[in-house]
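Researcher: Let's do a round of design. I'm pasting the structure tokens now; please hold your answer until I've finished.
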């Protein structure tokens, strides 16, 4: 049993207060759990308990190799969202999404963990993705101890995960047909066929095409990895929710997903990814429900 006492501290809120619950539920990350009045958050080799208070975010760093600096980087804590929203507010179609989702934060996540999470997202739902990601960590990651009723593991490195048995992934982690795909992705990262550094610096189309050489990575998965795992905010991922709301409210039925992606990237430019996340969150959780 782990008897270590973990101290808490409060990080004061920035000018535009983040909504931690909305951000956790926004589909960007998968290794988290609601516990009591807060959230257990796991990423990389760290574990954190987060509780929103009136004067700031109360954080407790649990077992592993987490730090305040890593957590603040994860949430892009110092980012000037007031200026970002002023820039985006000039687009009339973003007025309601910004009003509804002003607490959303773009997360800066570990690349490899994000890659595996979004390959798992194909024809899947968030509870199942979360379950598979946690089981993968439990099976192949490093064990750091038990904390707040949960066993804490790191997410496996590409080296460890490249040795995973696809059948074991299917049977014990619920990955289904995605088993071989994620092992292949781990091997590609390990062998530098897929390089985080290169993907950060390549022109967008080349970076997208590079990711799409991996089995199970189509345009939407590639764009999610670029946005949520590499901070390429010039991308505009389009899923069913995005397609529905934009065709109904802004565009017309002549636009397919590829055309919507192109439209979003050209319209919002370097803020396309932030605009996408605001529209997606609004479409999923508020659109059509305002008067109900």
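Researcher: That's everything. Go ahead.
Model: Designed sequence:
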């Amino acid at each position: 049993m782990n008897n270590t006492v973990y101290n808490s501290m409060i990080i004061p809120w920035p000018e535009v207060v983040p909504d931690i619950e909305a951000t956790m539920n926004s589909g960007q990350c998968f290794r988290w759990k609601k516990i009591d009045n807060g959230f257990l958050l796991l990423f990389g080799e760290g574990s954190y308990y987060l509780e929103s208070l009136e004067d700031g975010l109360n954080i407790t760093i649990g077992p592993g190799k987490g730090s305040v600096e890593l957590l603040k980087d994860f949430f892009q804590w110092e980012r000037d969202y007031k200026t970002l929203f002023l820039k985006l507010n000039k687009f009339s179609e973003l007025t309601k999404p910004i009003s509804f989702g002003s607490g959303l934060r773009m997360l800066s996540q570990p690349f490899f963990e994000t890659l595996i999470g979004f390959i798992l997202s194909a024809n899947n739902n968030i509870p199942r993705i979360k379950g598979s990601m946690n089981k993968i960590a439990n099976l192949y990651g490093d064990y750091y101890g038990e904390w707040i009723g949960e066993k804490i593991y790191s997410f496996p490195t590409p080296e460890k995960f490249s040795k995973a048995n696809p059948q074991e992934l299917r049977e014990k982690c619920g990955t289904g047909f995605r088993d071989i795909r994620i092992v292949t992705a781990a091997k590609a990262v390990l062998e530098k066929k897929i390089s985080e550094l290169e993907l950060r610096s390549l022109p967008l189309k080349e970076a997208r095409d590079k990711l799409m050489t991996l089995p199970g990575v189509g345009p939407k998965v590639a764009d999610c990895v670029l946005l949520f795992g590499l901070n390429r905010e010039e991308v505009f991922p389009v899923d069913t929710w995005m397609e529905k709301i934009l065709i109904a409210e802004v565009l017309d039925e002549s636009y397919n997903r590829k055309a919507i992606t192109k439209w979003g990237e050209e319209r919002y430019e370097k803020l396309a990814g932030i605009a996408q996340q605001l529209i997606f969150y609004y479409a999923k959780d508020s659109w059509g429900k305002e008067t109900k």
